[in-house]
């Protein structure tokens, strides 16, 4: 995440004095709720996102997931960019290219 | 998101030829599933995140939410930093500082 | 729900002295987590449920959603059969047959 | 579930000709979305459910989870009462009374 974007999210929170509510459990709930609002756009539909109104709604809910995720990283005092890079390393061990290439299997099902 | 972090996420996907699976509907499902794995860390517990093992698990699941969100932004051909900045503007209209200050009410419940 | 099935669920809980953990917030989280495990069976796939292993997993996760829902109804001291009948009435007002017939629109989008 | 309640749910669906939309994947998504609406009642709050308005909202969302779960069982052609009884047996093996008594540990963490 660009530093100024992270700063804008934190500023948005602090201008409203919301940090007091941002305990990790309720932030995890909030990320889950925003993810559901994102998913709601695909209930009873296929994957198409061309309808302008639908595209806008999807992008906005995706942004809310990201915003709450940045707020949670701040609450946990971790850096979003660092934890993504770290997790990509871990995922790379679980999903080694030669085994995972072109496969949608879960790592637990990939041939050992 | 830092450009090189976004690039690393996309590279991780492309090295495994996974783009073929990344339709928006299944990506929305995936974000929702990762959000649930994040939330699972708080099932039957309070909000404390001090236990080292728990902290690691929380940070890793949060990273997975962010990674899938970056992949979805790419599938939608939008820029994560841009959509966050745009949404903060929209949220700022829904949650005006003077009304939302220190309040956890939903914007629909904030005094008009 | 058949009375003896509800009784079996409550007995299962009480034999393990789990009622002490069953506050409504954590039960709501648990229902959400079981719903995600159910949904995980459809990640990266279509809707087919014919593969025996997949069918078993789907049915088991659906059962867990139902079991936690029964436990939550008990924690709220409401009767599952009653609240379903009540909600069907409410939904019937929101989705009147003549407007909702053959439509997957949300009630908020149904022609007034 | 009482037979007549299950019948009322199916009748509600069929009166609106909705079975055509009820593929298992979208039903799993719907259960997940209703579970999120249930959980939303506890965002930024404790577990109290005494406020009449909140209690009504919680009960209604719980009912929606149950209604969609009944519809999914019908789509899978399984009996809700049977699958609950079956799953309680399986859970009883995973959570044996002597090991699980008074413990909120996941079965994977229970002393072997």
From TrEMBL, chains A, B, C, D:
Keywords: Hydrolase. One of its GO terms (molecular function) is nucleoside triphosphate diphosphatase activity. The keyword Calcium does not apply. Pfam families: MazG-like (PF12643). InterPro entries: dCTP_Pyrophosphatase, DCTPP. SUPFAM superfamilies: all-alpha NTP pyrophosphatases (SSF101386). Coiled coil: none annotated. Transmembrane segments: none annotated. GO terms for biological process: nucleoside triphosphate catabolic process. This is Nucleotide pyrophosphohydrolase. It comes from Desulfosporosinus fructosivorans.
